[in-house]
Amino acid sequence: MSSTSKQNRGDGCKRAKRSRSLLPEEEADQRGNTGGGEDTLKKDSEADQRVNVDGGEVTLKKGPWTKKEDEILVDHIKKHGEGNWNAVQKESGLARCGKSCRLRWFNHLRPGLKKGSFTAEEERLIFEYHFLKGSKWAHMAALLPGRTDNEIKNFWYTRSKKRQRAGLPIYPNEITSKYSFNGSQESADILANESSQSDETENFNMDITDLDLKDYKFCPDMLPPFFDSQDAWIRHRYLISSSSASVPEVFDQYGQYPMLSTPFDPILDTNLLHGYDNPIPGFHAASNISSSEPIYGSMSFELPSFQSSPTQQCTWSGMYVSPLPSFESVDTPVQAPPIESCLSVPVPVPDSPDWSHLIDPIVYYNSDQNLEGTSIDSLQANTESMAPNEADISTQWNGLDYDQCPALSTRQINISRWFHSEIETSLDDIYGDAFNDQLPADSSFDKEDNLNQKGLALPNAVLDSG
DNA sequence: AATTTAACCAACCGCCAGAGA
DNA sequence: ATCTCTGGCGGTTGGTTAAAT
């Protein structure tokens, strides 16, 4: 739906209602002639809505953007980069406040935005994250590349209302039961107030992956700054090697998300640090649990699946061609994690081609292991030229040597709890024969043993923040 | 065919935090 | 320490479209 088809809402700006048959240009004209002194906008907004031009006060436009306005905004950002949004109006002549320009850019104009319906995986993540963390739309957007917080928010409200109307609990049973206390049947009963098991949520039930994670540690410095390094949910998703000493520049000028320092969340962290399966939403408790405390027990692990935003793809995976245009002001390459400590493995998802370039499990290895040198370099060489295209990736992985990426040899790696409809999908399945061809023909070949022989034994305790 | 309802979506608002003067 | 500016976030509104009646 184009923005120009929208009418402005009656938010205090007294403007004549338009008929829906107006052309965009007509809409723009009409909008431009409205507003003014009759505004009931409060103080904070008034400053946004009026600017001084040639000594006089000009009322800024509101409402849907026209194509021409979009072009002006895009052109300005191409020339000057993002930021300083209030200057956009002054320099470009756009009769839009800085906030409006920023919103328009981030939600509609910036490169890499993913349009279209939400996938089941996206929906799962949204519901799960909301269950755990509440209305952190921007955080969710960070986990759903190409999606905007606004889009996610709209989706959430629509879906949650729909479920409520249908007499269903807001959260699917699979989520509530998953995060209920172990052994707490009461809690489970309360939460599991859902009448039916539907296909749409059946994949919430996860199992522990077989991935050997002894050498994969959690390194808070490598987290997107958006996330709380104390957050076990996040820690669970972003296992990285403690050998990573440097802190990469995560977000470039296109980064949607600020360098937030999310405060410690006693609700989630207390629960999660005691075991991934055990949090109870709304359970507030002071926690003195050390962030370095390993998580054992029922916690399930998966390959760290960094759901980078489009702007972060090249940052974290270090291999994709950025979809962004080469604006002069944003040409400065972002720093990727050192290859010595990190490998980024693109994982195409056969049933969800759109996700193929989004799911970037980052496989970090311990440099103490026998994985240094040419094998890593060659893997990097292999991956650097990869395009975020499923077919391309599948093809190019054909040349991957088993020895070069031990993590890939582990079956039933849970690539992404939320982003893959096939929970038990192994990389073998993903890469098919091209991958299996790398393995010994002996049917009794034990990959785990093989890993052990390579000094990559499979541990249980994983999170060691060192 | 007309009307009503639901779903989707863009855009706005207030609030707030951080940076800088 | 205080104020102002800027920009980010979450909540909300209401227009448009699709589906249902």
From TrEMBL:
Gene3D superfamilies: Homeodomain-like (1.10.10.60). SMART domains: SANT. Keywords: DNA-binding, Nucleus, Repeat, Transcription, Transcription regulation. Coiled coil: none annotated. Its main location: nucleus. It is found in: Nucleus. Pfam families: Myb_DNA-binding (PF00249). GO terms for cellular component: nucleus. Residues 57-109, 110-160 form the Myb-like domain. InterPro entries: Homeodomain-like_sf, Myb_dom, SANT/Myb. Residues 57-113, 114-164 form the HTH myb-type domain. GO terms for molecular function: DNA binding. CDD domains: SANT. Residues 39-51 have a biased composition (Basic and acidic residues). Residues 1-60 are annotated as: Disordered. PANTHER family: TRANSCRIPTION FACTOR MYB33-RELATED, TRANSCRIPTION FACTOR MYB65. This is Uncharacterized protein.
